[in-house]
Structure formats: C-alpha cells, structure tokens
Specification:
Length: about 240
C-alpha cells in the first residue's frame, strides 16, 4: 500500500500528554471552562462525524461471518461496549479511592494494581486512537485535521482526569505509557493494514470511550462544571462540522 505519511498529527497528540498537565490555569474548582469546552468539542465530533462514518461502515462489518449475527443490525454495539468498559474502570478507581480514605491507607497509588489497570486500559485506548490517526491519513487533510483537533482536546481532558486520580504517579509514569501507546498504535498502522470492517469496530469502541470519558469528568457535582461551556464547545464544533 502506498501511503503518504505525515508524522505531525501523532507528534502533536504526544506533546499533549507531555505538557497537558502543566497547563495550571486549567486546574482547580470550579472546573475550567476550557476543559468543558474541550469536552464538548470531542463529543460533538463523535456524534456528528465519527458515528455517521460508522453507519456507512456497517455494510463492511456485516460481511464478517463471525459477526453476522452478533453485529448484523448495528455496529453501535461496539460503541456501547466502549462506553461500558470505561464506566467500569472509573467505578473501580473511585471505589478504590473511597476504600483508601475509609481505611486511612497511605500506600502510593502507583504501587497498587488499580493504577496499572487504569493506565493499561487507557494505553490500549490510546493505541487504538493512534491506529485510527494513521488510517485518517489515507483520507482528506480536512478529516485528518478534524480528528486530530478533537482528540487533542480530548487528551487534555483525559490528562487532568488521570492526574486527579493518580497524582504524581501519572506525571512520572502514566503519561509516558500513554505517549508510548499512542506512537505504537500509529506505528502498527504503518506496518499492518487491518480489514476495513475491523477498523470500523475500533472506531466504534473509541467513540463510546470518548463519550464516557468526557461525561465522567463533567458530571460529578464536586467539579462544579459549567454546562454553558460544554454546550458552547459542542455547539461551535457541531456548527463547523455541519458547515463542511
């Protein structure tokens, strides 16, 4: 396959993980309007750009014999699975933190299995995004740009959520793992071309994950999130997507 490779998109997303948590003006309570806007942009992209692509790709998925019965009606089942997986991970982490507070445990988070479970899951998530990013390079520059912008903002939201859970452990180790996973996923795309149907399933899983990972950061009462900022981000990016 002849493929024109642009390395800048994966470099930009990797830099987000390197420096995202250093944007101190985004930290604190009430939640930064910029994080809420970023979350709105990511969700708008999934609903108005990614999911329509999944609808078009359903025909490819239905050609998979092993999936004929399981996914014959809608590929969105994979999006639901993605959402459910990340909801489950969030509950595990939250319950572990509650247990530590209740027992007065002072054990550093990075010594606990829950840290690696959380980071390992996001590493897989990042690797899938890296693969999709490479695949986007086969299409138009416009599609590549729209995906890259949405994921860059989504990574900033994820960075602050993971740092809140794991503190120094995330800054010292977690972000490096996520950067490596992102680049590895992109590299796999360079050497391995998956069937189109599997790429559609990967996109569906990521789409569900994006929705869950954004909403879990916006909804907790203690975050004091600003709905208007989330709606503004979603509305502006939706307007852009619909005008293209």
């Amino acid at each position: 396959m002849e493929h024109h490779v642009s390395i800048w998109p994966v470099l930009v997303l990797a830099i987000i993980h390197f420096f995202g948590t250093r944007l101190r003006f985004l930290a604190g309570v009430p939640r930064s309007v910029w994080l809420s806007i970023a979350g709105g942009v990511s969700v708008a992209y999934v609903f108005l750009h990614l999911f329509p692509e999944l609808s078009e790709g359903q025909e490819q998925v239905s050609k998979l014999n092993w999936a004929e019965k399981f996914l014959s009606h809608h590929v969105y089942l994979m999006a639901l699975i993605g959402l459910a997986v990340f909801y489950g991970l969030e509950r595990i982490v939250v319950e572990e933190k509650y247990k530590q507070r209740k027992e007065g445990t002072q054990e550093p988070p990075h010594q606990q299995g829950v840290f690696w479970l959380h980071i390992g899951s996001f590493a897989i998530y990042n690797a899938l995004i890296g693969y999709i990013l490479f695949q986007r390079e086969e299409g138009s520059l416009q599609n590549l740009m729209l995906f890259s912008i949405a994921m860059a903002l989504h990574f900033i939201v994820n960075d602050f959520g993971l740092q809140e859970h794991h503190h120094d452990s995330y800054r010292r180790m977690g972000r490096w793992v996520l950067v490596a996973a992102l680049v590895a996923g992109w590299g796999v795309g360079y050497v391995v071309e998956l069937p189109e149907a599997l790429v559609v399933l990967v996109m569906a899983f990521v789409g569900g994950g994006v929705i869950m990972n954004v909403l879990k950061e916006e909804l907790p009462e203690e975050r004091e999130s600003r709905y208007w900022a989330f709606a503004l981000g979603a509305g502006l990016y939706a307007t852009l997507l619909l005008s293209l």
